[in-house]
């Protein structure tokens, strides 16, 4: 499954880039991330818990930053397995940050995800709908975090 999109954040590109590199901040914008444990500056382990239809899934995941070019590019590789099910999750993400004329930052992203095993058999439409929901919630949480930071600075 491939996903792409754009999120407009009311903050300068350098500030957005710095926050997206902060794994604790980034993880706080994703609903269901628990037990975040950095291995080093570029590799992190976590548990992701999410609900699809009537089922709750827990994944043990490892995320590795594969490219970081300030202040414009962040790429990562995510691998993991659902806990209690046979299967595998892999994803490659690429994020590019651009300055808009009005001072906002445009985050353009592409994610290529694959699910195998029992989880993959649930069906692409159901999983794609869940991914879209997670994408919308991430954007909402990210924009809200910058709105709070902006109010605090005022």
Description:
With 154 residues, this protein is an alpha+beta fold. The protein has a single domain, classed as START domain (Alpha-D-Glucose-1,6-Bisphosphate, Chain A, domain 4). Helices cover 32% and strands 48% of the residues. It contains 4 helices and 7 strands. It has helices at residues 13-21, 23-28, 117-120, 124-153; strands at residues 2-9, 33-38, 43-52, 55-69, 73-82, 87-99, 105-116. The protein has a 7-stranded antiparallel sheet with strand order 1-7-6-5-4-3-2. Strand 6 and strand 7 (105-116) form a beta hairpin. It starts with a strand and ends with a helix.
Give the arrangement of secondary structure elements:
Elements (H helix, E strand, L loop, with lengths): L1 E8 L3 H9 L1 H6 L4 E6 L4 E10 L2 E15 L3 E10 L4 E13 L5 E12 H4 L3 H30 L1
Short structural description:
Helices cover 32% and strands 48% of the residues. It has helices at 13-21, 23-28, 117-120, 124-153, and strands at 2-9, 33-38, 43-52, 55-69, 73-82, 87-99, 105-116.
CATH topology: Alpha-D-Glucose-1,6-Bisphosphate, Chain A, domain 4
Please tally the helical runs, counting DSSP H or I stretches of 4 or more residues.
4
Would you identify the regions where 5 or more consecutive residues have pLDDT less than 50?
Answer: none
The CATH first-level class comes to: Alpha Beta
Estimate percent helicity.
25-40%
Structural class: alpha+beta
CATH architecture classification:
2-Layer Sandwich
Distance between the termini: 42 Å
Largest sheet: 7 strands, antiparallel
Can you write the helix and strand succession as a string? EHHEEEEEEHH
Strand order of the largest sheet: 1-7-6-5-4-3-2
- Please state the CA-atom Rg, rounded to the nearest Å: 16 Å
């Amino acid at each position: 499954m491939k996903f792409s999109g754009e999120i407009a954040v009311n903050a300068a590109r350098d500030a957005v880039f710095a926050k997206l590199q902060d794994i604790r901040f980034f993880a706080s914008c994703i609903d269901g991330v628990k037990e975040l444990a950095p291995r080093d500056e570029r590799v992190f382990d976590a548990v992701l818990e999410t609900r699809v239809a009537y089922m709750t899934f827990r994944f043990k995941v490892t995320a590795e930053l594969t490219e970081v070019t300030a202040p414009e590019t962040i790429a990562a590789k995510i691998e993991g397995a659902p806990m209690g099910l046979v299967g595998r999750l892999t994803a490659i993400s690429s994020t590019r940050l651009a300055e808009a004329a009005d001072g906002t930052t445009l985050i353009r992203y592409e994610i290529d995800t694959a699910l195998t095993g029992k989880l993959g058999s649930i069906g692409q439409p159901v999983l794609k709908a869940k991914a879209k929901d997670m994408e919308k919630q991430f954007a909402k949480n990210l924009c809200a975090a910058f709105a709070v930071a902006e109010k605090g600075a005022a």
